[in-house]
Amino acid sequence: MKLLFTCLAFLFGNFITHAQLCNSPRFTEQFIFSAQDIQTESDVVYGHAVNYQNTDIPLSLNIAFPKLTADTMSKRPFVLLIHGGGFENGDKNDMNTEAFLFARRGFVSATINYRLGVSCFSDSLSYDKAVYRATQDANAAMRFIISKADSLRIDTNWVFIGGGSAGAGTCLAMIYLSQVEWNAIHPTIQPLLGNLDNSTNSLTNTFTVKGIFNNWGGVPKDVFQEAEAIPTISFHGDADQVVPVDSAFGSSCVNPPYIYGSNLIHEKLTQWGICSQTNIKPGGGHGIYDDTQAATNFRIAKASCFFKSIMCSNCSSNYTTDSIPAACSTTLSISENNKEYTIYPNPAHSTLFITANFPIGDEMARIYFSDGKKLLETPVNDKITVTDLLPGIYLLEITRNDQLFRYRFIKN
């Protein structure tokens, strides 16, 4: 009887934790912690390794997380972030903002330095070695973080990775380029540089990545396999000349691989039944949604909602060329220009009524599901029929004279 009670208590406790997670504004588009609630630690050394110039260098990371005194959650998901720069430039500080924005939503996040350096004139495998070293270092950084899971209160069941450009390519390589595949492509790399999974530090902690935050990255076609596929959210410009959004030959000193950009990654993942959300900016070049604080916050809000949908087992695929803001929290109101109209009832079953203190006539209404998929666009009347919508949380946008008004409602 005692054993039965213990098992029931454990299961009930897990249910409560899951319910609190999935019905809370944590890990959504909303900030739940103030800037003052976030603790940062800089230049934390996670390992040493020999770079392309045969010099042993320390490798470090920055961490951002809600202060243990400010956060009541016993275990928090983790996001590892990897900067871009073509494996020649860049620094971990380039993604401090992203790490901070994830932390304000309740994640523990870290951004890493990894070994850089390409010299095709002296070594025809230089570029491929740079990718390999970056993957070794990212794996080592992850092992280091997992070794600190107790002190950082990280839930090792929910580990995610993300990056931009070369950093996104490194994330994809972590999942899709195994040691066996590397050895088949370049048999000399492992003897020269060591194993993928025990370089840079001697830690033996293991981890399983549950999702990828892909910013204008690509993956070699020949290694992109269904058996290894995991949920991915992608951001890309359709005019990207560095990493094409569709497919093209990638970068290498010799024999560049044929790579898939975000469009082909999305196509294959959805074909395989793997959750994929892809945001394509028409006319956007390399590094879209990264030019302003608002654009960066747009990406992190979307990625947070995506990761939460994985944790809550309700991830759904979608593809959009509209910059639809994330809307996955359970809060029923938005503080952005939302007092002009009144919508009721909320929750709604068959009809959503709209009223205002002025004549309604020239407005347009759009309804989006919580994952960002647009379901309906119609001129605003005094009511909208929602009978055909499935139960869930929806975003209503009303446009009037270039102004945007947003409301959330529940369909029951």
Please tell me about this protein's structure.
This protein is an alpha/beta fold and 412 residues long. Helices cover 26% and strands 29% of the residues. Helix 2 packs across helix 9. The protein starts with a helix and ends with a strand.
Note the main sheet: 9 strands, mixed
Percent strand equals 25-35%
- Mean pLDDT figure: 89
Specify Rg, calculated over alpha carbons.
Answer: 23 Å
* H/E series: HEEEHEHHEHHHEEEEEHEHEEEEEEEE
Please, how many helices? 9
Helix content: 25-40%
CATH classification, class level of the largest domain: Alpha Beta
Q: In oligomeric terms, what are we looking at?
A: single chain
Describe the structure concisely.
The chain has helices spanning 2-22, 96-104, 126-147, 149-152, 166-176, 179-185, 189-193, 262-271, 293-311; strands at 38-50, 56-66, 76-82, 108-112, 154-164, 209-215, 219-220, 232-237, 247-249, 258-260, 276-281, 318-320, 341-344, 351-356, 364-369, 374-379, 383-385, 392-400, 403-411.
What brief labels describe this structure?
single chain, 412 residues, alpha/beta, Rossmann fold, Immunoglobulin-like, 2 domains, nine-stranded mixed sheet, four-stranded antiparallel sheet
Which helices and strands occur, and which strands form pairs?
Elements: H1 2-22, E1 38-50, E2 56-66, E3 76-82, H2 96-104, E4 108-112, H3 126-147, H4 149-152, E5 154-164, H5 166-176, H6 179-185, H7 189-193, E6 209-215, E7 219-220, E8 232-237, E9 247-249, E10 258-260, H8 262-271, E11 276-281, H9 293-311, E12 318-320, E13 341-344, E14 351-356, E15 364-369, E16 374-379, E17 383-385, E18 392-400, E19 403-411
Parallel strand pairs: 3-4, 3-5, 5-6, 6-8, 8-11, 11-12
Antiparallel strand pairs: 1-2, 2-4, 7-10, 9-10, 13-14, 14-17, 15-16, 15-18, 18-19
Helix pairs in contact: 2-9, 3-5
